């Protein structure tokens, strides 16, 4: 394993492909099946399907594969939307076209960032005196943090509450699998929050859901939050951090020592859209 001080972007990308793709992405899913080279996860409470993979051979019949996925989820009344996670460095130039032909819609592209925990800790910013950083230690504080994220990202109150319910349930059942960190402002309200997931069997911790209230940006809150999560990751023996980020958080993560290694573009299919003209028999294997 190369030193975290000397590792290159290409080496980070290789580690990402080896450790963080496919099975590692669906460990929290209640149900997972294999469809050819794919991992297809179902989250019934969210009405969500999720599709990922480590690699798809260039000679694969993409039309048939995508058709099998849509047929699998379209037959499940609990699922009303499906995300197929694509990566920009995969050698699959026709995949986006095939997905769109089968009713998927490409959403905003995000940048996949990776970097050593030490760099994020070194980049820590000093919080303003009237703000305080804390680890969420109750269901109520997790709900506060998720409510802030919902407001920042424009989620509906119902969607935000649903996500909070899932995180609280996960915290009650698997408290060691993640931590929620938050920053409270002068009045005690949560003004910045973010989660760190500890990915079992890997050298990585994932940074997810980072959000900061618009009125409190530019004051070092997100960098302090990132450093706190990096320290937790380091205590758990993790060497690297990974995050899928928007154009707004990318500069902050770059200052924290993370580098861009690829992009990811969600392709989303929603219930009621056409299944597609290339439907074929399903080839699903339960896990």
Automatic annotation (TrEMBL):
InterPro entries registered for this protein in UniProt: Acyl_CoA_acyltransferase, GNAT_dom, SRCR
Residue span(s) of domain SRCR: 183-215
A molecular function (GO) term: acyltransferase activity, transferring groups other than amino-acyl groups
GO CC terms: membrane
Sequence ranges assigned to domain N-acetyltransferase in this UniProt record: 140-285
Designated name of the protein: N-acetyltransferase domain-containing protein
């Amino acid at each position: 394993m190369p030193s975290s001080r000397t590792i290159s972007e290409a080496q980070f990308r290789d580690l990402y492909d080896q450790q963080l793709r496919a099975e590692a992405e669906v460990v929290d899913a209640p149900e997972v099946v294999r469809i050819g080279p794919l991992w297809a996860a179902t989250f019934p409470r969210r009405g969500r399907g999720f599709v990922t993979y480590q690699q798809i051979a260039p000679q694969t019949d993409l039309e048939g594969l995508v058709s099998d996925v849509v047929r699998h989820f379209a037959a499940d009344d609990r699922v009303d939307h499906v995300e197929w996670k694509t990566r920009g460095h995969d050698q699959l130039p026709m995949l986006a076209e095939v997905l769109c032909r089968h009713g998927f819609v490409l959403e905003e592209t995000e940048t996949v960032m990776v970097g050593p925990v030490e760099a994020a800790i070194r980049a820590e910013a000093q919080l303003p005196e009237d703000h305080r950083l804390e680890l969420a230690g109750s269901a109520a504080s997790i709900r506060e943090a998720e409510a802030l994220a919902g407001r920042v990202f424009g989620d509906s109150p119902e969607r935000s509450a649903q996500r909070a319910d899932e995180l609280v349930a996960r915290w009650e059942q698997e408290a060691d699998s993640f931590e929620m960190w938050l920053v409270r402002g002068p009045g005690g309200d949560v003004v910045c929050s973010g989660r760190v997931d500890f990915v079992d069997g890997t050298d990585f911790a994932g940074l997810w859901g980072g959000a900061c209230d618009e009125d409190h940006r530019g004051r070092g809150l997100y960098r302090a939050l990132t450093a706190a999560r990096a320290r937790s990751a380091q205590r758990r023996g993790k060497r690297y951090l990974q995050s899928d980020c928007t154009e707004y958080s990318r500069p902050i993560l770059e200052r924290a020592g993370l580098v861009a290694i690829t992009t990811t573009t969600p392709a989303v299919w929603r219930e009621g859209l056409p299944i597609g003209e290339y439907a074929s028999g399903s080839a699903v294997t339960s896990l």
